[in-house]
Amino acid sequence: MLLVFAQEITNRVQYTFDFIFKEILGVPFALTTDLQEFNTSQFPKINYSLLPLDCPLKMHPHPILFQHTINFHSLEAVNYKDEVYFFESSADSFFPFDPFAASFYLLSRYEEYLMRELDEHCRYPSHHSVLYRNHLLDKPIVNQWAKLIAQKISSQYPGFKYESPRFDFLSTIDIDNAWAYKNKGLFRTAGALAHSLLLGNAHQFMERLRVLYGEKQDPYDTYDFIRELYAERKDLLHLFLLLSKKSKYDRNVSPQNEQLRKLVKDLSADFQLGIHPSYRSTKRKRELKQEIRNLETITQQKVRASRQHFLRLELPTTYRRLIKAGIRDDYTMGYADQLGFRAGTSSAFWFYDLKKEEQTKLRIHPFQLMDVTLKNYLKLSPDEAWLVIGKLMQEIRKCGGTFICLWHNESLSDRGEWEGWRTVFEQMTEQAIKYKDESEKNYLHKT
Predict the structure, then answer these.
(1) DSSP letters along 298-357, please?
(2) Range with lowest mean pLDDT among 8-22, 45-59, 67-81, 128-142
(3) pLDDT surpasses 70 at 193
């Protein structure tokens, strides 16, 4: 048991301490404003206030956790033991920075509410992030801080116990286009064939014809490979389906197509499916509900998980719409152009609505890497990508959390521009499962 004194227990304070102690460290704790209770308690204690109490662990609190508005804050770097931190504290605090305030700032995505300069797809630019600017994006910094806090408490209270870091793994695949050539309809297929001829792309023209005549497998039809790779670990793979009207950025087969419906139904028998809300649905409220309804009609199952197409995420609007539509788990939290930990953590967390000042029932599952990021944005080769992936996994092994990757069915084709990337996916899967099993074994041994 841990007791924390604060002069005021706001929603922000409760949310932050819940995440660090209950969710990451697995430590039961209580917040109190009662000085007598705090002073007489025999439990390990933290004084998170301005009062000079008799307690070996004092943290001078940053005001952000006691505010009820969204304001600009100084984010000047604080150096401590050759590492960079922010939200400076006092000289008599057990750290020169306030890890609770800094954690809330990252988890709530505070900085994204203040940003008006978005990219071409109306997304928050990674280069504006405090983590990117301080070269911390590749570390689950909130999990690291939680570990530092636990170690500091243990140094003052030797009987204090907390959970060791555990590595978990979840592979996710977005199906933006179920097939490259098949089931596109007469007019769309004819137009594509004509386009290939006009561009002089004889290879693509002939490949399309061979697929249509059943002489060759569709390049995006990687579903048998996926099933085989995860046959024994189906729980470690989630799929997200784009089932929308066609538009410039939404180009999957119509959700009314019988072959697509059959594919979705077959996949739902093996794996957990979520909706992949279309690009256009971010501006059309009714279309999100229709796309969810499309998936539920096909699978005859409630849809509770989601990831935004193109990772289009506007806070708090997008998450509020998902909650209203019945979504309980979202997997959009990550950058398209950078790898790493957008919210500073490798652990799932509850969405905190800053404008309503409340914790919601939407669970956020941050991912750390996407296939397109590795190949198109960072221009890495398959071998270079594997080294980077390995480093990300090692960071999570040290601090705990879930390694979540984002791939697409077409990137597993091992053809054309994606040649060699299937091997990376296989290596990643094998290594991540090994780490997960080792972590589970060690945890069971300790308990």
Answers:
(1) HH-S---EE--GGG---TTHHHHHHHHTT--EE---S-SS--S-TTS-SS-EEEEETTTT
(2) 67-81
(3) no
